[in-house]
Design goal:
The structure holds two protein chains of two kinds. In chain A, a hairpin with a 2-residue loop joins β1 (20-25) and β2 (28-33). Chain A has one helix at 3-15; strands at 20-25, 28-33, 63-66, 80-83, 88-91, 107-108, 113-119, 122-127, 132-137, 143-145, 150-154. Mean pLDDT of chain A is 76; it is low at 38-73. Chain A is built from one helix and eleven strands. Chain B is α+β, with helices and mostly antiparallel strands. Chain B starts with a strand and ends in a 5-residue tail after the last helix. Chain B is globular and about 60 Å long. In chain B, α4 (89-97) runs antiparallel to α5 and α12 runs antiparallel to α13. Chain B is built from 15 helices and 23 strands.
Chain lengths: 155, 446
């Protein structure tokens, strides 16, 4: 399952009045449910939902992706966000196998290194520009991130 | 053929490239700055990546961000579009060094033609006539006054690293020369990063004629005839036509041959445009643009070709199957550029487009990224639409354009639509009596 395709579906659900979107293609299907919605109302998406041609819903069982507090699209955890200063690949640890720079619950000071964003074979450290406690780490290790994407939420 | 192309640009040209990708079954990656999230092509691309904030130097001119976007998206080629990094040899080099294909010529070709002095040397070596002028000059050099006298007044001071009509200053008398040179050198340093300047004879009321070319990686080179882009404001084109009427046919055919000769000499790859001033049956080379042009549209209309597809095909290593004899022209096409600007002051007019009704019907083509609800931001150039009219000859194309402009409606921003309508109805323009000073001389617009 391509995480980015699912993210796009999440965005589309966000922007619409629907509570649920379920998309079936042959054997595979994806179902998205808005957080806090009445699950007894199941609305099945009509072909009006446009997916890119190359949408590769992989040949695994249908997955249900819930918009819960792990999703970056809604402001679930309140706190100050640290956003990506560049486009690249997110790494939570200084090298593969090493301990991550920070964990949820850690207190960080201004200037502490939180993660690395790699681009063009160069490792760029992302530092905290304020102090706080880490409530959430959004991207997974080795996940591509965009400029402006939320990486950490601190309080 | 490429699997995935990253479109390193924005606005209507990015949409144009996206269309070609879609038709060719090539996956597309749109990169955008934060305010450009709602761009039409961003919504329609297969993938979209935010690469930076509004400022161009942190987004569309940000080479590491663009290369990084290639990495995370797995694109195998980059289309630089028009402007931004399209003629930046460093960018081309880094794209290639990072393992991607740059859809354009080799960095060396971009370098040679990017510097106006070396461009003229290359053109001359290929047999093209240049505007009489100098090599590099300096305000502090004693020879400069002599060089200028040989060229004769009035003359132009031009920035070697300039382009797109910028970095040009006119000097009418020797007494003004050195101070104007000092000013131009400083401006050039600020705008283009280089204070290299040269002098050129000022040709009175020429027309601006350019030749569309393409070459593949196998040494084949073709032309797609010429365009007339004389109607300009402050050296920025606002109307372009294909073909150019009433040129000396013999000299024109000779010109085409010499352009092809130059392409082969340079081992040029990709699309390009040779630009000339035309006066009294003579063509004078001024510069070459080593990229797709905004006005490629009118050439496409009279030759019934898709230049963007050809550009992508040749970049991917396909040999040009077309032979020069296969390329035929028919009829006449005009393009009016629509800018988001105040009709009187020409100050950019950003804002939310509340209504957008483009013209349509027989012989009309509109290239635009506008839609009702889209907000034109203040950070980038003002071009928001290109309206093209095609018909069997120039005068009927002008009439067709006139009505198309009437039909065209945009609300929420100001545009130069009215000025375009005035020009279409103006008798001198209708008769083809124009030059690059048309707006100033005939309509008194500076």
């Amino acid at each position: 399952m391509d995480i980015r395709k699912v993210k796009k579906l999440i965005e589309m659900l966000e922007d619409s009045n629907l509570n649920e979107i379920e998309i079936k293609e042959g054997e595979e299907s994806v179902k998205l449910v808005k957080a806090g919605s009445n699950l007894s109302q199941t609305l099945v998406a009509q072909p009006a939902v446009q997916l890119p041609e190359e949408n590769s819903i992989s040949k695994e069982e249908s997955q249900k992706v819930e918009k819960d507090s792990k999703s970056e699209e809604t402001k679930k955890s309140s706190g100050k966000e640290i956003k990506s200063p560049m486009v690249g690949t997110f790494y939570g640890a200084p090298n593969p196998g090493a301990e991550t720079f920070v964990k949820v619950g850690d207190t960080v000071n201004e200037g502490d290194v939180l993660c690395i964003i790699e681009a063009m074979k160069m490792m760029n450290e992302v530092k905290a520009d304020f102090s706080g406690t880490i409530i959430e780490i959004i991207p997974e290790d080795a996940e591509p991130v965009e400029f402006g994407q939320t990486l950490f939420i601190l309080n | 053929m490429f699997d995935k192309i990253l479109i390193a640009n924005r606005g209507e040209i990015a949409l144009r490239v996206l269309k070609a990708c879609k038709e060719m079954g090539i996956k597309s990656v749109a990169v955008y700055s934060e305010p450009d999230k709602e761009l039409k092509h961003v919504k329609m691309a297969d993938e979209a990546i935010c690469i930076g904030p509004a400022q161009s130097n942190k987004s569309y001119l940000n080479i590491p961000a663009l290369i990084s976007a290639c990495e995370v998206s797995g694109a195998d080629a980059v289309h630089p579009g028009v402007g931004f990094l399209a003629e930046n040899d460093h960018f081309a080099e880094q794209v290639v060094a990072s393992g991607y294909t740059f859809i354009g010529p080799d960095p060396e070709s971009i370098r040679i033609m990017g510097n106006k002095i070396s461009a003229k040397e290359m053109a001359t070596s290929a047999g093209l006539q240049c505007v009489p002028g100098s090599g590099r000059v300096s305000a502090t050099n004693r020879e400069t006054l002599n060089i200028a006298s040989t060229i004769g007044y009035p003359l132009l001071i031009k920035a070697a690293a300039g382009g797109g009509g910028k970095g040009i200053k006119i000097v009418r008398e020797e007494s003004e020369l050195l101070s104007s040179m000092r000013i131009t050198q400083q401006e050039a340093l600020n705008s283009f990063g280089s204070d290299e300047i040269y002098l050129e004879k000022f040709i009175e009321n020429p027309r601006h004629i350019e030749v569309q070319v393409i070459a593949d990686n196998f040494g084949n080179a073709l032309h797609f005839f010429e365009r007339d882009c004389s109607i300009q404001r402050k050296n920025q084109k606002i109307i372009e036509e294909a073909p150019a009427w009433d040129l000396n046919e013999t000299k024109k055919e000779e010109l085409f041959k010499l352009c092809i000769n130059c392409l082969k000499k340079m081992k040029y790859k990709g699309v390009g445009t040779f630009e000339f001033l035309y006066k009294d049956d003579e063509f004078y080379f001024i510069e070459m643009n080593t990229r797709l042009q905004v006005e490629h549209t009118v050439t496409e209309m009279i030759t019934n070709t898709d230049l963007v597809k050809l550009q992508i095909e040749t970049a991917s290593g396909q040999e040009l199957e077309l032979k020069q004899n296969d390329i035929k022209k028919y009829g006449h096409a005009i393009e009016c550029r629509i800018n988001a600007e105040d009709p009187e002051t020409f100050i950019p007019s950003p804002g939310k487009v509340t209504e957008y009704d483009p013209p349509g019907g027989i012989g009309i083509r509109v290239d635009s990224h506008l839609y009702a609800g889209y907000t034109v931001s203040p950070y980038y150039d003002a071009l928001i639409a290109k309206i093209c009219a095609f018909s069997f000859d120039r005068k009927s194309a002008i009439k067709r354009m006139s009505f198309a402009l009437e039909e065209f409606f945009v609300d929420g921003i100001s545009t130069n639509k009215d000025l375009q309508e005035i020009i279409m109805k103006e008798p001198n323009f209708f008769e083809g009596d124009i030059s690059i000073n048309y707006l100033k001389d005939v309509l008194n617009i500076n």
